[in-house]
Amino acid sequence: MTDFTVEISRAGEAERDVTVARRYAALIERLRGQLAAGGDPFRIAGSAGSGLWQGAVDDVQGGFLDDRALYWGRLGAHRCLREEGHAECGEALERASRGLSEGAAAAPTLLLAGFDPFHLDRDISQSNPSGTVALALHGGVVEGVPGQSLTVQSAILPVRFADFDAGIVERLLSERFANGDVRMVVTVSMGRDAFDLERFPGRRRSSPNPDNERRLGGGTAEEPLVPRGLDGPEFLEFSLPAATMAAVGGRWAVRDNHRVATVARGRLEAQSLEDLAGETAVEGSGGGYLSNEVAYRTLLSAERLGLDLPIGHIHVPALRGHDAGWERDIIDQVQRMIGAGVRAVIS
């Protein structure tokens, strides 16, 4: 069972200092009342999670461009489950409130995954624009060539190493690949000073940064770690139409990022996988943290399933705290980048 102890411990501070942290307080009190009234607690927890997810989707698509209300609302609901003696129902709440338990769409789909806020010990008000992007685009239609379109199905992933070790990415992909018509996969996270299309995801963890449970990934730059069960090559190459997506204009530059790090050669600009033959990864183009790892796991999962799809990771520009105008511009540019990508590859 997932441990939310550290994340829940921050909730009181957030509810005091971050106004949006209590946006779904009424839903949480309704959850408390339903648990007290009896009935199946797993069904009740799952229903509350679905309510949080749909509420956040509706809010963001209605102009409330903030992912933090969902993050803190989810943790408030987990705290409620614990207080009412139903912590065992946390997984039902967790999956539903992340869009992970939604059924596969009947139409051809684009699977889009963002992340929770992180670095919350530095700044309790931190948002993550990638989560806002996922909520903003969920359920939308991206037009390809005439007569071809993709429906966006979004999810938001936790910033916790344990969940990745437990296969959260692989489970999401296997369920959607098995039950739906997925044509393209895009993962998104908050990164640097511009947009980066991460060309060469690496296999290993090396970041010194803890996750949202204050746990480390186990690797360092000197001794990068292969995550448990991640049996694949040291580097993979993404398959998004980078040149087309990078040509989309907007507030920020879009880079086709080839920069990686290896044990023997340090940092380098790799031109191909052949350039990296025989190397041991320290960082992929996306770094040595979970954003790089989601990109690697997504590509490896598709490869193992024999699927030939456009797949890749986008790092969006970083911000401190929250800025609705900044997030609006990020959403607009990601939407146009994805649209250009779909038109380039879906026929």
Describe the overall structure:
The structure is a single chain. This protein is an alpha/beta fold. It has 2 domains: 1-101, no CATH class; 102-345, 3-Layer(aba) Sandwich (Aminopeptidase), CATH 3.40.630.20. Helix content is 40%, strand content 16%. The chain has helices at 5-9, 11-17, 25-37, 41-61, 68-83, 90-97, 129-137, 161-165, 168-179, 242-246, 290-304, 324-345; strands at residues 108-115, 141-143, 149-157, 181-190, 195-198, 254-257, 259-262, 266-269, 281-283, 311-316. The strands form 2 sheets. It has a 7-stranded mixed sheet with strand order 2-3-1-4-10-5-6, with helices on both faces. The chain has a 3-stranded antiparallel sheet with strand order 8-7-9, with no helix packed on it. The chain is globular and about 60 Å long. It starts with a helix and ends with a helix. The model has no long low-confidence stretch (mean pLDDT 95).
Brief overview:
The protein contains twelve helices and ten strands. It has 347 residues and is an alpha/beta fold.
Binned strand content: 15-25%
Portion of residues within helices = 25-40%
First and last CA, distance: 42 Å
Strand order of the largest sheet: 2-3-1-4-10-5-6
* Fold-level CATH name of the largest domain: Aminopeptidase
Mean pLDDT equals 95
Shape: globular
Rounded to an integer, what's the Rg over CA atoms? 19 Å
Number of distinct beta strands: 10
| Estimated structural class | alpha/beta
Which runs of at least 5 residues are low in confidence (pLDDT < 50)?
A: none
Which CATH architecture of the largest domain is right? 3-Layer(aba) Sandwich
Helix-strand sequence: HHHHHHEHEEHHEEHEEEEHEH
What is the H level of CATH, i.e. the homologous superfamily of the largest domain? Peptidase C15, pyroglutamyl peptidase I-like
As for the number of domains, it is: 2
